[in-house]
């Protein structure tokens, strides 16, 4: 490699020496950072006492990652750089106190992928069989935080998750989005042409509906508890020579040694699922937050209008409005409302106060940093 007017030639060994020297520097700095995080833990313990100490600070982590992206000059892209820092923080936090994260399992689900994307790799994974078990595991304190799917860009809301918030005191303390790519998978000994049944979670079957109608109109679609479970069943069936396929993502296909018959079979190429992080603590302002509310409207003319009017007047930007049966009175409804801002921001606070006067019940499900990655 030479440049104009450059008499010295840069050789491969020279570049490798330079990389080795940089690596040594980075390693020292990462350890210096880790030692700081350990000190942070000591300070937190002295200030807050052993019982109530909160090691994980989602608002602080979001600010760190945002700053990494803002100051990044390249050649590495902003996201790539933030992912590296995501893992550095994850390792540092594990030194302070390793966190046990419950998620909708089994191993290999997109929810696990969301958990790793949000918290980094240095966590203790606790796969749960159902969404309400994730809630219970966090409520009981057996897990520090939980991860549950809440909405998909193709299929809409995950009712189980919304309904679980009704009787829970848990707070939403974060959100994370994952691009969902599905594959049609079979065990290695199975001829795809023989497939009679296709297993997956009902949401995944729905996200591939048009593709299945077109290419597999005669195969029976079987809804199971998760797409990782579908993959496990397809692997089991393969061992018995049964021609069963599964629809699942890459992690599940690797975990259960399945072969990809067709990749990226989701009907919408930007198919994305949003997940929520649930925990026992409220999260302070991070500077770029969202808030989720559960609101029961009075059953009278103009009730919903009066709720929405408050948002408009205070200039608070709503991002989502979801209706679910109230489960208390027939044809009664509750609303799930998401909006930009933190419940301690002045305008948001004013809206919430007004809603409390206008609705029969308002529950703040949480204010949390907007997903960074
Ligand atoms: C170091 C701290 O604790 C944790 C680790 C962080 C980090 O490594 O940057 C950031 C926030 C916390 O989750 C802190 O609170 O500052």
From TrEMBL:
Cellular component, GO, one term: cytoplasm
Location(s), subcellular: Cytoplasm
Keyword Glycosyltransferase: no
One matching Pfam family: PDT
Enzyme nomenclature, EC number: 4.2.1.51, 5.4.99.5
GO terms assigned for molecular function: chorismate mutase activity; prephenate dehydratase activity
Source organism superkingdom: Bacteria
Site residues, Essential for prephenate dehydratase activity: 273
Domain ACT: 292-369
Catalysis: reaction(s): prephenate + H(+) = 3-phenylpyruvate + CO2 + H2O; chorismate = prephenate
Domain Chorismate mutase: 6-100
Domain Prephenate dehydratase: 100-280
InterPro entries in the record: ACT-like_dom_sf, ACT_dom, Chor_mutase/pphenate_deHydtase, Chorismate_II_sf, CM_dom_sf, CM_II_prokaryot, G/b/e-P-prot_chorismate_mutase, Preph_deHydtase
Keywords: Amino-acid biosynthesis, Aromatic amino acid biosynthesis, Cytoplasm, Isomerase, Lyase, Multifunctional enzyme, Phenylalanine biosynthesis
Function of the protein: Catalyzes the Claisen rearrangement of chorismate to prephenate and the decarboxylation/dehydration of prephenate to phenylpyruvate.
Name of the molecule in the record: Bifunctional chorismate mutase/prephenate dehydratase
Organismal lineage: Bacteria, Pseudomonadati, Pseudomonadota, Gammaproteobacteria, Oceanospirillales
